[in-house]
Amino acid sequence: MNILLFGPNGSGKGTQGALLKEKFNLAHIESGGIFREHIGNGTELGKKAKAYIDRGDLVPDDITIPMVLETLKGKGENGWLLDGFPRNMVQAQKLWEALQQAGMTLDYVVEMDLPRDVAKARIMGRRLCGADNNHPNNIHIDAIAPNGEKCRVCGGGLSARADDQNEEAINKRHDIYYDAKEGTLAAAYFYKDIAAKGLTKYVELDGRGDIVSVKEALLQKLG
Length: 223
Prior knowledge:
By secondary structure, the chain is of the alpha/beta class. Helices cover 48% and strands 13% of the residues. The protein contains 9 helices and 7 strands, in the order E-H-E-H-H-H-E-H-E-H-E-E-H-H-E-H. The chain has helices spanning 13-24, 31-40, 44-54, 61-75, 89-101, 116-125, 167-177, 184-196, 211-222; strands spanning 3-6, 27-30, 80-83, 108-113, 128-129, 158-159, 201-206. Strands 2-3-1-4-7 form a 5-stranded parallel β-sheet, with helices on both faces. Strands 5-6 form a two-stranded antiparallel ribbon. Helix 1 (13-24) crosses helix 9 and helix 3 crosses helix 4 (61-75).
């Protein structure tokens, strides 16, 4: 099973991706990890990408797409879950063309839908437990709300990440994601049109529920 996963920062996309990885034994492939691996291993594509990154330039799609494709082929023997790419309409089109040329199927495209104001509140509400960062605490989600200023799981002290409180940075990331004309939502909707032709399946998921209810809804829609 090969899955493409879309969702704004704050939607719980990473959590659901990890659950899908475990459930279906998928390779969970994130865009940032692709760059790090290719550069770290000194591949030809990695060297080319590093030259752009070192100059502070964006890596062009004619390098990024082959890099993504090579990673999918190498790690996805039992299926893959691609998260964080494509980020715009052009990349969506080029990725689809590359998958077709490589004879690779795209079984599902999952869009985790979450209103922008809710996504922003979730990000700013995240709190880190000093004893264990894996203990979920969020002041804006009732199901995992902390116990006052203490961790809901162990009672440890809590803190907030500086970047989670940077509204300007959050708004910039969301500007890209929620752009339905050229940005990441436009990329998702490109695959929605592809699904209407019967070439893949498009799953829309309401991300406003808790982790368990969202997971159950997702697994039901994946059949």
